[in-house]
Design goal:
The protein is α+β, with helices and mostly antiparallel strands and 396 residues long. The chain is 48% helix and 15% strand. It has twelve helices and ten strands. The protein has a four-stranded mixed beta sheet. The protein has a four-stranded antiparallel beta sheet with strand order 2-3-7-6, with helices on one face. The chain has a two-stranded antiparallel sheet with strand order 9-10. Strand 9 and strand 10 form a beta hairpin. The protein binds flavin-adenine dinucleotide. Flavin-adenine dinucleotide (FAD) binds next to strand 1, strand 3 and helix 12.
């Protein structure tokens, strides 16, 4: 007997089931962050492109508990899991300001995690607690004028002098470098020890010899500040060392995994936001007597973008699930970082194209997304470096 038409399964495009890594609690967190970001941050996005975002964002986010979502309550954190950080990264894209999202992510997911994992109790009290409260702003110094991808080639040196260390060198492209109260600094402490010759230090940015040399101008992310820093005979006590002497390279490679995964989550969310806005535009804008979204050429662009965004999202969520559950999935994190950065650049480029001339105009916000997104193929490890990490993981 033939199946009655009513019993035939129909696709349910409107269905939305929460991904299994998230709970109702994450949903509530998402709603709260979304409300804050759209009410208190997004309205200032245009102004902050000109001025950079104000430092006051940090204490406000600290007050709301957003700077320590996954840190223990004893340090002022919320005691949540890593997925809470993903939620924050995803919702920050609604601030309409890539630079702001980056400045906050540097603080929450790049500079403070090494203090939490490797820091002494005194360091946690002095730096982590006020950072979570938003009372101290942090930055992370890896890149140098002569060493970016090749982290092992850094020249900033820390030399032991009695109980102290004396630091000389330079760091560049440092996000939050102008506003930061302290820096997590990567130095070389033993030039002959190869990968075992690096050490991290925690430095107050107002210490004698720390010079904020230059505010760097850039293609996008205008609401963030980016600094060239110099360190001239900066003397720090022995207890400024973060983690183990000689293990700084491994410490920072660990930090980079979290940084890359959070960046990947931001790429997916940013691409999705751009997609949604463009989908709306494609239903409103008409040409040759019909909405442009009804042209097959445009419809297929949306289909392609949606498929890639979904693939990226699944990569990020499944990798985050492994990371949260104690694995160290460097290969998959590198894949997620590589794929989502490329994907987000392709998506913003297609969205700009679908907007036509409007996409090139500032008022639609697409050109800014296009400029901001480009950084993801460079920052936190370039595409080429990700390819190399992935390739080497197969023993090649
Ligand atoms: C806006 C912005 C903010 C940043 N914020 C920070 C920050 O807060 N802290 C920080 O420490 N750094 C920061 N960075 C630095 C960023 O991480 C580096 O720019 C990035 O790692 C690349 O290093 P590089 O610029 O020196 O490029 P290089 O290493 O000089 O690379 C140049 C080109 O050579 C390619 N290349 C290099 N090595 C290889 C290889 N082995 N195989 C194939 N190709 C290769 C690269 O992929 C790239 O295409 C920021 C950068 C920008 C632009």
């Amino acid at each position: 007997m033939a199946t009655p038409a009513a019993d035939v399964l129909k696709p349910d495009h409107a269905a939305s089931r929460r991904h299994f890594i998230f709970t109702e609690e994450h949903d509530r967190l998402r709603e709260a962050i979304h409300a804050f970001v759209t009410k208190e941050l997004a309205p200032h996005a245009d102004a902050w492109e000109e001025t950079t975002f104000p430092d006051a964002v940090f204490p406000r986010m600290g007050e709301l508990g957003l700077l320590g979502l996954s840190y223990p309550e004893e340090y002022g954190g919320q005691g949540g899991d890593y997925f809470c950080n993903l939620v924050l990264a995803e919702e920050m894209v609604h601030s309409k300001s890539g630079g702001l999202a980056m400045g906050v992510a540097v603080h929450t997911d790049m500079a403070t995690p090494p203090i939490h994992l490797f820091g002494t109790e005194a360091q946690k009290q002095r730096y982590l607690v006020p950072a979570i409260a938003g009372e101290k702003i942090s930055c992370l110094g890896i890149t140098e004028p002569d060493a970016g991808s090749d982290v092992a080639a850094i020249r900033t040196q820390a030399v032991r002098d009695g109980d102290d260390w004396v630091i000389n060198g330079a760091k560049t492209y440092i996000t939050n470098g102008h506003r930061a109260d302290f820096i997590v600094l990567v130095t070389k402490t033993d030039p002959d020890a190869g990968y075992d010759g690096f050490t991290l230090f925690l430095l107050d940015m107002d210490a004698p010899g720390v010079i904020r040399e230059k505010r760097l101008e850039k293609l996008g992310m205008h609401s963030s500040d980016t600094a060239l820093l110099a360190f001239q005979d900066v003397r720090v006590p022995g207890d400024a060392m973060l983690g183990q002497e000689g293990k700084g390279f491994y410490h920072i490679m660990w930090e980079l995994q979290g940084e890359r995964l959070i960046g990947a989550a931001g790429c997916v969310a940013g691409a999705q936001k751009c997609f949604d806005r463009t989908l709306q535009y494609a239903t409103e804008r008409s040409a040759f007597g019909r909405p442009i979204g009804k042209f097959q050429a445009i419809r297929h662009k949306f289909a392609d973008m949606a498929t890639k965004i979904e693939a990226g999202r699944q990569m990020v969520y499944s990798t985050a699930w492994r990371f949260q559950n104690g694995e160290y999935p460097v290969r998959e994190i590198s894949m997620a970082k590589l794929y989502t950065a490329r994907m987000a650049c392709e998506v913003t480029d297609e969205c700009l194209q679908i907007h036509g001339g409007a996409g090139y105009m500032k008022e639609y916000g697409i050109e800014r997304a296009w400029r901001d997104m480009r950084l993801n193929r460079i920052g936190a490890g370039t595409d080429e470096v990700m390819l190399d990490v992935i390739g080497r993981s197969y023993g090649l």
